[in-house]
Amino acid sequence: MADSIQEFTDSRQRIMNSSRFMSIDSCPMCRKRIRIDSKRQPNEFCAKKRYIGYNKDDRISELPDDIVVHILSFLTVEEAARTSVLSSRWINLWEYTTRLKLDGDEGLAKLRRQYMFRRKLIESEERKYVRRVNRVLQSHKALTLKEFRIRFALQITDHAQVERLEFDLQDDDNYHFPEKLVSTSVNFKSLRALIFTNVHVSKGPIEFFLRNCPLLEKLIVCYSANLSNLQVCGSSLALKHLEIVYCYHLNPLTVSAPSLTYLKAATYDRLVLENMPRLVEVDVNRTDDDVSLRGLCSALSCFSQLETLRLTLLRKEKVRLLTANIFSLRRCIGFLFTN
Amino acid sequence: MAAETGTPTTLTLKSNDDELFSVAESAAILSVTIRNMVEDGCAGGVIPLDNVDGKTLASVITYMNGISAIPADEEKKKSYRDKFLSDKDFETLADMVLAANYLNMSCLMDAVSAKIAQVMEKKSVGWVRRKFGIENDYTPEEEAAVKEEHKWTFEGVETDDDN
């Protein structure tokens, strides 16, 4: 596996060094025709035919490049890249898509379940996936990515500027977020959304992202056993949406973020909430001891914009206690009780 | 603005085949192009939209009215979009994606693009060529070379003559 990671990094480095990669002319947002890279043409004969004319009924090939690229952005990378076989018009359009979804890992997860003990087979399949990711990153040319998703996250490299970073390992509950990653000089400055699902990530990397991503608006951590003692604090945080759910060892979670409008904390651990003047919606699970419930209510009563509170309690008899306290809230329109 | 006076402001849009349409300003400003005109105070009189024909513009206005009547509920908006696009043929979708791009309406642009992408999803190269009338201008050798270069995209795909 170590080899594969090295391979991944090396090939990425090569691309970053090549001048072709950052050609401004090739930016699809510049509304220019994307020029076919002469090196990539199969041979010189078909160059004569390029862009001369399509079949009259071929509306899709007639659409401007940026629109075709936009359409291809909704396909998986494999499917988008396969369109290069359609005709010379399509040969490199897929390389400019603004979303890179490398979801080819579904088969891999199935394989892991089926052949748990055949380590070699699984490793060879994993290598194949890494090669494919490398392959895509080598060819890909968009300057900004709206989304970069690897369902088998190994190493994130500096692919121009990433706006949304999502780690989603639904079928693998053993993946630990590589903490080395965040100490590198990767440029995360344009990151707006950061999502960890089923990835064990500890407070270190998350607080790194909070410190180094001035535009970060959305942070979601879902199912991480490693996370404890997290502090989402900072007077200059742009964070608007925070969800920390199913992280069972949080105790405590401290949040102090002036721009936050939505907070979801599905945890029965202790919450310390302060300085969130714009908070509109809160969704929390609470323990049913009176002290923590009173504490929560008095903390929430300071947030004057709060409109919706969803509360999941363990026992119903606490409702009365709650309503007694909740009147201090300005407006409160939603409750949910389980059991 | 409309909300302050209580009477909704209407705008007049003109298609490139000289059809005129009235549309509430509150719905029309879904288009960033039109919104900019309104904000710059140049939306009085008739707004000519040189890149959109009457048939497409009528359709886009139906969409503008429909979607702006739905309060901020992303689920409902999505289901409206799905329903709105469900009976459109590819010809219409191509016109709409061009119009949405010109009018700078990202929600419509995304919905139409996703719909077109959906048609291509999980289909062989041959099928897509036939469906959209794409002429294969590669020589057999060129096609083989492109395929070889993109071999990784065919992994796990059923191969037949169509691929």
Automatic annotation (TrEMBL), chain A:
Domain F-box: 57-93
Database matches in InterPro entries: At1g61320/At1g61330-like, F-box-like_dom_sf, F-box_AtFBL13-like, F-box_dom, LRR_dom_sf, LRR_FXL15/At3g58940/PEG3-like
Gene3D superfamilies linked to this entry: 1.20.1280.50, Ribonuclease Inhibitor
SUPFAM superfamilies per record: F-box domain (SSF81383), RNI-like (SSF52047)
A Pfam family of this chain: LRR_At5g56370
Name of the protein described by the UniProt record: F-box domain-containing protein
Organismal lineage: Eukaryota, Viridiplantae, Streptophyta, Embryophyta, Tracheophyta
TrEMBL record, chain B:
SUPFAM superfamilies: POZ domain, Skp1 dimerisation domain-like
Keyword Iron-sulfur applies: no
Any one GO biological process: SCF-dependent proteasomal ubiquitin-dependent protein catabolic process
Keyword Glycoprotein listed: no
Pfam families: Skp1 (PF01466), Skp1_POZ (PF03931)
Domain SKP1 component POZ: 11-65
Pathway assignment: Protein modification; protein ubiquitination
Record key words, sorted: Ubl conjugation pathway
Domain SKP1 component dimerisation: 108-152
One cellular component (GO) term of this entry: nucleus
GO molecular-function terms, A-Z: cullin family protein binding
Alphabetized InterPro entries for the sequence: SKP1 (IPR016897), SKP1-like (IPR001232), SKP1-like_dim_sf (IPR036296), SKP1/BTB/POZ_sf (IPR011333), Skp1_comp_dimer (IPR016072), Skp1_comp_POZ (IPR016073)
UniProt similarity note: Belongs to the SKP1 family.
Biological function: Involved in ubiquitination and subsequent proteasomal degradation of target proteins. Together with CUL1, RBX1 and a F-box protein, it forms a SCF E3 ubiquitin ligase complex. The functional specificity of this complex depends on the type of F-box protein. In the SCF complex, it serves as an adapter that links the F-box protein to CUL1.
Subunit details: Part of a SCF (SKP1-cullin-F-box) protein ligase complex.
UniProt-recorded name of the protein: SKP1-like protein
